[in-house]
Write a structure and sequence with these properties.
480 residues; alpha/beta; nine-stranded mixed sheet
Length: 480
């Protein structure tokens, strides 16, 4: 036995001296078959796709050392995941039980799967639903009820997910209030009628309470998906910042407080380029009292917008609530793994490093035709799910699975982002993000697109881990 241990140790030590590259089809990870540290690796060549590996602590020190500082913390993390839209819930519910359970475990099980731990659900129909509906289609707030369609699809799937991973946090957003609350008297476009502000606030109170009765805790709500976008194709509504401030200050905030609801109230739920919107709402002391933070989308602007909001109100949370993969992003889709690295380097990593407590992609699951969409259509044509479910119940994990999984696997709910320091020359086009989990383990995600392999040492307290990261690769480490 000692002879085998010696052989494995010798092979591992030698890898720090070799210059491996993906094109050879051979990396240091091919030798590592056991160890103290778990890690998962994905390469642009797809020779590794979130493949689990192991490594041993050693006394080796490379020219580049990444030191972890678990006592120097930033924001507390809530999680990574996607939107369980009506379409996603429908497709999952249509699967055979064993196939669905297997897929949900790959997505949400923290031990055997990616361990995704944040979901966004829709309050009524979105542009990816099986019908047009709200939770109070008949006029009169006393007619509020969970729709049959959500009792059929959403609730059973959501409860199965929560059974797999009870830590999951849930954000809920309406694409439109009930038609009778709007100036258009339809689910399409328009604005909220001023005489319905009170009913609109009560709508959220009843929603959170109804979900609680189903055993589902709503972590946070947004008042309106894409608050400054009107559509004639799917449910939508414009809600200027003045209206959002008024509703929060005089209706929703006081109602949540009076009923003991602790769900976070998040602002905007729209693109980065609209960052002045939440600042304007937060400038109102009455609204600021009840607003927990801001939720951003990634279809316009850049994560630099986070800096402006946090500079003005550093005590308010930042969330990232939507970005869809898919063919709509034509310039990137020619190389699907290049798209994953683009999303990671341009959105996920900067959002987290600038203070976001989460990161959510759009549809959790769609079919091969990028649907089904709501009757009437969607502006998000060629949008892809995190997984694609085929008619025979087989499924394909898309790049978004790997994008999210590299973080959700090593960053648990309640983790805190921690400071890291590079000792030596840290190359351009590389980044490192680290977390301290509630159980004391540390999660580290390193992206290398420097053009060269990256031999490095991770310094974890008094332990060292030497590892060579291939070019065009992302590696997630879980350290004790």
């Amino acid at each position: 036995m000692k002879g085998w241990m010696y052989l494995f140790s010798l092979c591992f030590l030698l890898t720090g001296c070799l210059d491996f590259n993906e094109d050879s089809g051979f990396t240091d990870s091919d030798i590592i078959t056991h160890g103290d540290v778990s890690l998962w690796q994905t390469t642009r060549s797809e020779s590794f796709l979130f493949r689990e590996q192991y490594a041993d602590y050693s006394n080796d020190v490379n020219a580049l050392t990444i030191r972890l500082y678990p006592n120097e913390t930033y924001q507390e993390m809530d999680g990574f995941g996607a939107a369980l839209t009506g379409s996603s819930a429908y497709l999952l519910k249509q699967m055979g039980e064993s196939q669905r359970t297997a897929l949900l475990k790959e997505l949400f099980d923290p031990k055997t799967g990616a361990g995704m731990n944040f979901l966004r659900i829709t309050i009524g129909a979105s542009d990816f639903s099986m019908d047009l509906y709200t939770y109070c289609d008949k006029e009169g707030i006393e007619n509020f009820a969970i729709p049959e369609i959500d009792q059929r699809d959403l609730l059973p799937v959501l409860k199965e997910i929560l059974a797999i991973n009870p830590e999951i946090k849930i954000m809920a957003s309406p694409w439109s209030p009930p038609a009778w609350m709007k100036t258009t008297a339809t689910l399409f476009g328009g604005e909220l009628r001023e005489d319905k502000y009170d009913d609109f606030a009560t709508y959220f109170v009843k929603y959170v309470q109804a979900m609680k009765q189903e055993g589902i805790t709503i972590h946070s709500i947004t008042l309106q998906n894409e608050a400054m976008f009107n559509s004639e194709a799917h449910p939508s509504m414009v809600m200027p910042w003045q209206v959002q401030a008024e509703v929060i200050k005089n209706y929703l905030g006081p109602k949540f407080e009076a009923t003991g609801i602790t769900s976070k109230i998040l602002l905007l739920d729209h693109n980065f380029d609209l960052y002045e919107y939440p600042i304007n709402v937060l400038n109102d002391p009455g609204a600021r009292k009840y607003a927990a933070g801001t939720a951003f989308h990634g279809y316009a602007g850049t994560p630099d917008a986070i800096d402006y909001v946090t500079a003005a109100y550093p005590d308010k949370d930042i969330y990232f609530s939507e970005l869809s993969g898919g063919g709509w992003n034509e310039d990137l889709e020619e190389d699907r793994m290049a798209t994953m690295f683009y999303y990671m380097n341009s959105f996920l990593v900067p959002c987290v490093q600038k203070g976001s407590k989460n990161f959510i992609m759009f549809n959790l699951a769609l079919n091969p035709q990028d649907g089904p969409t709501t009757p009437g259509g969607t502006f998000c044509e060629d949008c892809r799910g995190v997984v694609t479910i085929n008619t025979d119940d087989s499924y394909r994990k898309e790049i978004e699975y790997y994008l999210l999984g590299h973080f959700s696997k090593v960053c648990r709910s309640g983790a805190k982002r921690i400071r890291t320091e590079a000792i030596g020359t840290f190359p351009a086009d590389c980044n490192v993000t680290a977390f301290l989990n509630p159980d004391g383990t540390k999660g580290v995600v390193i992206v290398n697109q420097s053009g060269n392999t990256l031999p490095l040492t991770l310094k974890n307290n008094d332990k060292r881990l030497s590892y060579t990261i291939p070019n065009d690769a992302v590696v997630s480490f879980l350290l004790d």
